[in-house]
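Please, structure for the following, as tokens.
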Amino acid sequence: MNQYYFNSIEKWIEQYEERIIASVKRLVSINSVAEPESDVKPYGQGCRKVQSEFCQLAKDFGYTCTSYDDRVIRVDTRQSDANRRPDIGIWGHLDVVPAGHDWKYKPFAPVIDKGFLIGRGVRDDKGPAVAALYALKCLQDLRIEQKHHISLYLGLEEEKGMSDVLWLKEHDIPFPKMNLVLDSRYPVCYGEKGILSIVVGGRKPLCENVLSLSGGESENSVAGRARMEIRALSHAPIPEALPDWLAVTSGAGKIAVETQGLSKHAAHPENSENAIYRLFAAASGTLPGCESLHRCLADALAPGTIKLFRDFAQLSSNIYGEGLEIAAQDEISGKLTTVASLLSMEDRLCSVTFNIRYPIALGRHDPLISAITRTLQKHDMQLVRFSGKTPGYSPKDHPLLVNLMNTYNTFTGQSAHPFTIAGGTYARMLPNGFGYGFRLEPEPVTPAGMFPPGHGGAHAADEAVNVAHYKKQLALLILSLAECQKTKF
């Protein structure tokens, strides 16, 4: 590691700190959940606005910003580079997952409290996107030689399916030769599990006393809330002494049952609590402590509806695929995981969306679809639709990967190794694509009592990043981009 570069980088970051944080806040204040169904094509007004705001940040540095059909933007430090194929692409995204519920702070009014910057997107992925822009500025200001041209690419529909980058592929837009995706963690991610989204539906309609069913906020998050409304019968007693995650109210001729869970990213569902599972299990009487609710609903719900709820509870009860009978694992990427993420009812038919992350070694999702179909037949259910992304994998001995690992280990004093993840990033869709940052572990712990349990992470309520740690992550990124100029490829 060049110590002169490192000292210069740290000094530069201190000089630009206020401006960097202000830039992150400008982007986080925009609710940029992608809305493909919006009249403002392709992804809605929020994504259009955040794109414009980021391009203004780039133009303030004198950089060129190219928009590809308002789906992906490309930033180059020089106009003359805008039409050439970059050697290295840095990738991030400006869309975010929905805010969800139960925030202590406001999701789109970013603030700094106790040294933490809080707001939707500070971690995933607006904070890293701003870091990449300022990394290019630092390289330029410090006159670090760039043998390999670097461009910055930012998508606007990563969270809902990556149709943004797919559009580039379909329209033969050349990708950079090497690609770093700032949507993971340090050091280097060289592989990603396959992702499979399925919608499971009951074949028979629910009984007429079920008035509504809903749950979840995002396809790739564990459901944090679920709700059911039942037509009230005059003799049905309102249950008491229920678990604190279960609420039952009555009025206007109906009974409302609402469950709360602990939402986490579907790629990391360990220690989460699924509100959809809780709703089905509580209503069907399969959870201890909910017997009084089951008795309350027994007269209103037909036996076939109760059976369907019990079956859905069984399918969603385990995060390792045992309910769907698809448990699997490999040495490269670990266990398959599955979570119930969305619940809905249409034309009296109940459907649940499951998000599945499957091991790299499986290669494709066809065998899983066959196994799931067999399981659903046992429960008189059907596979309504499915979509997926095959696993991504790049060789561990790639010269760029080796360079990045050496820089990381020198910076941290560790002897770390590259890794694989369960998350889905642009890396799987790009040639020679690697996840690199932006999260650096271990992260500072929030002060006791600052957040409720489960808050503070990406996709969680009160998404937060420690400002001092963010600066350290940025320093590592800048140093890595400087060092990778030495790589021959």
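The domain at 195-389 is CATH 3.30.70.360 (Alpha-Beta Plaits). The longest helix spans residues 3-28.
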